[in-house]
Design a protein that fits this description.
Radius of gyration: 14 Å
Largest sheet: none
Number of strands: 0
Helix content: over 70%
Number of helices: 6
Number of domains: 1
Strand content: under 5%
Amino acid sequence: MINHKQISSERQLKAAIGKSKPEFKLLKIDFENFYFEEYGQTYEEYIDENVQETPKLKNLEDALFFVLFQLKNGLTWDSLGVVFGMSGATAYTNFNTFSKLLESTLEKKSNAQTSV
């Protein structure tokens, strides 16, 4: 499974997800904040309380990387599953779930910026 924390250069990160480390970190903060505002708990708290098996995307940082990686690379679901250590069906479900969350995060951020 790909581990984004082991990516050693800005060039590799941009090739993988189209974002620099600072851009990714800022987006991750917005993503986590939106999740908390939307659900009233962190993703990790949700996992602890509701999920029996440890998911492949253990935190929202992993989920964000997963979505951005797919948006940048456009793999088939089965290929994406291989890269991230999950089935193609799970890759599809995870992408749909977390890409919607990212879309809502970006919409909220855009609306907040235009309101100022």
